[in-house]
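Order emerges. As here.
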Amino acid sequence: MSLKKTFNLSCFLLFCLFGFVTKVQAAEDFENLIKPLLVKSCNKCHGEKKVSGKINLQIVSSAKHLLEKPALIKDIIKVVEASDMPPLGEPELKEIDRLKLLVSLKTMLRSTTNSNELTQNQIRRLNRFQYNNAVKDLLQLKFDLFELPEKLMTRHDNYLMRPILKMPDKVQVESYALNPKSGLRGVKSFPKDLRAAHGFDNQANQLSLSPLLLDSFLRLSVSIVESPDFIEANVGIWNNFFKEPVSKNDTEAEVKTRLTPFLELAFRASVDVETLDRYTSYIVTKIKKGGTFTESMKKGVSAVLSSPRFLYRSQFAVDKDNSFHLASNLSFFLWASIPDQELLQLARTNELSKQEVLKKTIDRMLADPKIERFLDTFPSQWMQLENVLAATPDPQIYRYFKLDESNLASLQMVMEPLLLFDAVFLENRSITDFISPDFGYQSEFLKTWYTSNLKPPVIDLAKINLENNEIENQRTKLDSIIKITQAELDNLIEPVKAKLYANQETSNGKKIPPNLKPFAAWEFNGDLNDSIGSLHLESVGPVQFQNGFVVLDKAYLLSKKLPITLKAKTFEVWCKIHNLEQSGGGLMGIQGDGDIFDTIVLGERKQYHWISGSNNHKRTLDFPDSTPETKPNELLHFAMVYEENGSTTLYRNGKPYGKPYSNGAISFPKNKGSVIFGIRHLPAGGNKFLSVSLDKARLYDRALSASEVASSGSGILDAEILQGLSDEQKVKRLVLLQTISQAKELRNKIPLPRDSKKELQNVQRKFEDELRIKMNSHIFERIKASDPRYGGVITNAAVLSMTSSPKRTLPIARGAWVVEVIFNDPPPPPPNDIPPLNEEQTAGNLTIREKFAKHRENLTCAGCHARIDPLGFALENFDITGRWRDKYENGRAVDASGTLTRKQEFDGIVQFKELLMNEKKRFAKAFTAHLIRFALSRELSPIDSLVIEDIVNKTENDSFKLKDIIKEVILSDRFLETKSN
């Protein structure tokens, strides 16, 4: 007999002996320990009179019966280990009995199977994310194939590739989940994959292939290679695979040479001759029928991408190819894609089965850029974070959660727990940091969300009213001074005016009393209250007050009551012609009915222009000698006089300029009007463009005579008035003018009254604009955890928002999330005959805890609620968007107290998290169970619980570090030896 056979026989005999001893010990333990404890503490609810939780212990009468039910053994271990059983009100197990029971049950569970009785994995297809990555890696594409909304966070920094395995203090990340980037043009994905109950989308029992979906895969494979983006610049393997070969002597050999490594990558295994020949023949046939080499190779790729060997993850070959199967499992677990050439080479040489080589390979893969795909899938699916993007808090209660369609708080919130996971992974920290870390990553928006009252600054309306009253009092006093002084001045000079114009003739030759008082006037002194009539300013650009005058950069006169209006159209038309916007010149003009207009403008050459027009007819007249002097406060006068004959005459400084412009179509308004502009140049020098102000604008309801225009516009009027005054009157006039000027200057310095409503609107708008800026920021900063209430994957805005309804928090949903995600012990769905809580029928002054107390009176609900509710109420201090609160809207105080595992009391979230940290081994088991389920792509079997316990025990001494757990999952028998059927 050979040495190998002798060794195998010895092992077999030892195994049989061990199995016999185990069964004997199991029988003794069952009779002496397990059965008495079950009868004493469990049979009342699970066998005597009723069967709770579908567990009937009455049928377990011997060790043999129990050994035949590994799932039942696992369930008993779980509830005893978590102290969920016996239920409240029943005598608790003594700690020594509880530990003995657990040891015996675990021993029995381990004996129910052996290394040859491994769970058969279901065959499963690639999910959307895996398919995208596999094709992308296979063809070395620069882009994704299609939109990937399941990728919740995009890293703009390449911090995963840092030589020092530490997250930088600042990172730049963004979520495109609600507006994912498009992939190759013309490529449409198959529908999003169904999520299993625990949130993972890679589970075999969900990844079936219907005829309709198969058709989608066929059309998808064709659309990829036919995409207009599928070109040499975007396809990394183009030159080595698709490009026409230089030599065409042996096309078949060339195709086969290129196909061999391609098919091995695509099928994740060595390719037999028959398969290689079949694909080669397909491509060569296409070439022989007239297709180009490149197009024929594309069709071959399309065939590969729709092949079951590409679409399905399965071990097609026999045991000799188990290394390829391991390589595939490794790559899909860590990279969500196919193995690379190095992995395949290790599988081809069977080196991958050597533990030292495997450990080095794991380290290489964890450090590879493609590990980002693991971080894009497992964390978000484990925490079920996709749900936060569907959170819709009532905007009447939380308007800032969604300022508008492009500014959603949830897009910032989802990044916080994902960045924490990145940091724990990259720095290989303990997974307990997921519960209570000493750091976190937050944006300015999240800092504001957690720490501020989310309200704009308070405005002191009473103070504003007092200030406005003071302003009005000051203005009233100065207006009174101006009015009284102006009346005194008028009394002084009016008699002189009457004498000067006693013999003045009008345009028709008749003598009339002098009357130069305009129908409407614009005498600006820094505010609009000097108008006579209803004339006011319509500004198209900024209005500035300088030296007591209004500077008009782009503005118009507008009168609502007169048949004279000035509209933006005039300015826009002129700007297009003269490039006024670049020159910065001023513009003053009037516009009548329709499109009739007359304007005086300061153009780009710092010359005045007169532009006039009607009915799309326009003319422009330059004044070559009108270039402004540089003298400060120089006063130039322009007047437009609309004669009775329909012509328009322009006057400059009281003298006609140019010939009258006659066109009945633009008489403005005929026989009715004159306009006088006083244009004052503010201090020249130092400015790129000369500032212009409109000092005086007077509108008359009659056409003025030439002498009236001259006397009003050239300054002669003032000179003549002075000649008619005595020396004493001149002094008095000067004093009165100075008094008016000083009063007006003081009034100009008085700020305008503040509009309380506008102030509130401006503050609100500014606050929301600042919030939008923060929402759009992609910078997240590492912060020290200074407040123990926050931090970790439980107490962050993302999880707390997605476990709330639009109007209130949901303690049951929050508790169920904790039970499922943190403890991996999801509760069963509620019975169909249990109605939901009807809050409308409960008193409005009750707390949520009090409302649910009535609901829990149903005995069918009490068991689960006793386990779930305390975990949910522990989070009750957080409102529906994750912000802290001490009281409800009705004024009642929040009660966040409870018990963990039915005996550890807590009074709020801080103590609750401290108790969770004391349960770190329980959390480690739960987390490892999630991870191994994700790695194996299937539901766990009873024997998996023992593998999980082994992994936890191996990593316990080093504080359950994340990468260590990942490595132990891969090194476990369940990962290495699981086979596909």
About this structure: Residues 922-980 form one domain.
